[in-house]
Amino acid sequence: MRTTLIVAALGLALLQLQGCVPLVATGIGAGALMAADRRSSAAYIEDQEIELRAGNRIGEAYPKDTHVNVTSFNHDVLLTGEVPTAEAQQKITDIVQGVGNVRKVYNQTVVGPVSLLSSRSNDAYITTKVKARFLDAKRFQVNYVKVVTENGVVYLMGLVTQQEADDAAQLASTTSGVKKVVKLFQIVQ
């Protein structure tokens, strides 16, 4: 009887935990990424918060005619996309600088119409090709470099050695479809 009660209790507990498996798996995946990252775990989490807060604030201030991607790496923020006016471009920089823990803002947005989905899809494809080349070359740990592509321009961010920065830039610049490479690295010794 006691064994039956224990088995029943464990069965009920497992049923209640069933919905937690994706959360646990996500937590494990994020933990593995953080462990292999040169940023501290606090900086990793703060970068996620910066991206979320800045993106929300930009969306509230400019709900139409604007497409801005926010990428944060070790408290440096890259803004890419399209904005309607030069005034909006400056205001967006000010908005992001007002977000906590932001060290530096690289506003690479352009004044013009919002890009087409086909252009964004091509940019995602270029990013994938660059990352695949990083993997194939095995010159540095891939997650040391964050790759962002906008209109064929590849932006590279990360905490890297000078050699890793040079290797990443060389690999990215020789990838088909890449128009230009912009290095926004923080160099470590």
Describe this structure in words.
The protein is 51% helix and 23% strand. It has helices spanning 2-17, 21-35, 41-61, 86-97, 117-137, 162-173, and strands at 67-73, 76-83, 104-107, 110-111, 145-150, 153-160, 180-187. The strands form 2 sheets. Strands 1, 2, 3 and 4 form a 4-stranded mixed β-sheet that branches. Helix 6 (162-173) links the parallel strand 6 and strand 7. It is globular, with a radius of gyration of 21 Å.
**For the residues shown, what is the average pLDDT?**
88
Strand count: 7
What is the N-to-C order of secondary-structure elements (H for helix, E for strand)? Answer: HHHEEHEEHEEHE
Helix segment count?
A: 6
The Cα radius of gyration reads 21 Å
Features:
single chain, 189 residues, alpha/beta, four-stranded mixed β-sheet, three-stranded mixed β-sheet, 6 helices, 51% helix, globular, disordered N terminus
